[in-house]
Amino acid sequence: MDSAAKDEMQPALSPGPEWPEQERAEQLARGAALKWASGIFYRPEQLARLGQYRSREVQRTCSLESRLKSVMQSYLEGVQTGVWQLAQAIEVVQGTREALSQARGLLQGMSQALQTLEPLRERVAQHKQLQALSHLLPRLRAVPAAVSHTQTLIDGQQFLEAYVSLRELEQLREDTWAPLGGLELPVFQGLDLLFEALGQAVEAAAGAAGKLAREDPALLVAAVRVAEVETGRTTPLGQVPRDWRQRCLRALQEGLEQAHFGSPLLPAPGALPGWLEALRVALPVELATAEALVAPCCPPQYNVVQLWAHTLHSGLRRSLQNLLAGPELEAADAFALLHWALHVYLGQEMMGSLELGPEADVSQLEPLLTLENIEQLEATFVANIQASVSQWLQNALDGEVAEWGREHGPNTDPSGSYYSPMPAIVLQILEENIRVASLVSESLQQRVHGMALSELGTFLRSFSDALIRFSRDHFRGKSMAPHYVPYLLAALNHKSALSSSVSVLQLDGAPSGALAPVEAALDELQRRIYRLVLEALQAELQPLFADLPSRQWLSSPELLQSVCERTGRFCRDFWRVRNPTVQGLEENAHCAPVLLALRELLNLRDPALLGLEVAGLRQQFPDVSEDHVSALLGLRGDLSREQHLAALSSLQAALPPSPRASRRVLFSLVPAPALAPASCLPSGSCARALLLAE
Length: 694
What we know:
- By secondary structure, the protein is mainly alpha-helical.
- Helices cover 69% and strands 0% of the residues.
- It contains 25 helices and no strands.
- Helix 5 (159-177) packs antiparallel against helix 6 (191-207).
């Protein structure tokens, strides 16, 4: 197409309205030109060059107009080309619209033709289905009989044959799916139930694996093979996979747990040790059976021995947790469970047996008893055993106290010393409980040790209180004991036996002061018995000392002889007290020093030295009072009032007593002679007041 024809086809462009921006631009240009011209021609000498400026501006204007015309011409040519192409595209679109309209009409005609052919298509499909069924009809007729035969095989535990028959039936069902378009014939509706029946039979056989491995291992092997084949088989589309391997493994675990821990009834009180002993025998046998008989019947990936060990461990742990969540155990049951779980279970008698392989190791699993369980059992055991120990010790004390009122004296040993089995019984009870606790754990041993020391302290206090009641009833006449003093001396021997043997309660590695409270209680018991013995001696001699001190008493040999006789009779059984206790009781320990001191005080010839003797008496016996010293000085009968006062003054100026002497208690046990109340001042010593009044 030449340019003339092209120009004829292109539409003419009519000039449009002027642009407002163009007019504004022209105004700005004129203003700028005027400003420039006024600046250039402001001075007169520049007007001569006006012609040059004019010609140059004319040339510039012509050049700009030429360039603008060229640009506008190019722009107009591009617009004309675009308009022409749009016209061409409109023609093409119009042709395409007409072609599509014709195609739509053709398609509508074909759709009507297809609707007329639809019945024929259905007949063809039915013909194909009937043709396929005609080929499968002999096999389909045999399906009911095959289903019945398969059920018989399942009931007869012929697992392999039943599985083969089921696979054939399932394959026949799959063969009918495609021709029937996924439609399932009614004859196959019970096939899934038959598969489930076989799965349950295989599961039941796996649950009795231990028994079958001993009695019928071929049946166990068949069940496991069927489960493995079915698990590894690719199922048809749309069918849920049958993971019979996991069902077998679960059945193995459940059957094992049911055999040993299936009973919901917990062991009755006192029956727990027997139950644990039965498990001690049964569990290793079960593991040995698994390793020797069950494992060869199963694939290696079953890890039968490990599965057995872990299942037994978890079942046992769950049973023990249920047991501890129930009623509180008795002491014997708590001890048996602690000892069994901590020592027997993982020992060589059970899970740690050298005859078992490494697959049976359960030491890395969760322990049978948690720390909270152990704490609970230890607390239960200690609380129960403490009540028992307290009752046993009380019974031992009651038996001893019952003998104090007998008509004959205490029993003696071959050496003649007073003897009673009570101290040995007490220590044996405590020592045996500590020893038994050490069989479980160090923590339980320490708990029981602390309990034993506490109960021993309580027993000693009860023993002391019983002696006080014994003494009170004896002196008040409620229950006169024929052998009061011998039984007090026997109590000293009991204390000595306890003191000499209490070291058996000391634990290895325990601090040296662990027995300090018990030793302090023993010392207090000894002091209490000493006090009761001295009170008995004082009560024996009190009638003879009613007039003491007096010159008549000192001058009467009969009274002194009576004192010696009564004292001798009182002390005749002291030899039956074992050492070292008898040395508190021997005459030279307390009596000799005071008698020697009194002899020096009464026999001193030089009254000027009385102050030294009185000061020495105070230093040896800190509990001597001015009333005692005044009464003793009055026995002399050769002192003036001034000498008497001087001797009493030296009593106050005496040196502090020695530490050993400060523990002596003697004069405070002897009442000072009573003086006339009228001669005593409101404060100060009555003896000093009486002398000053004279």
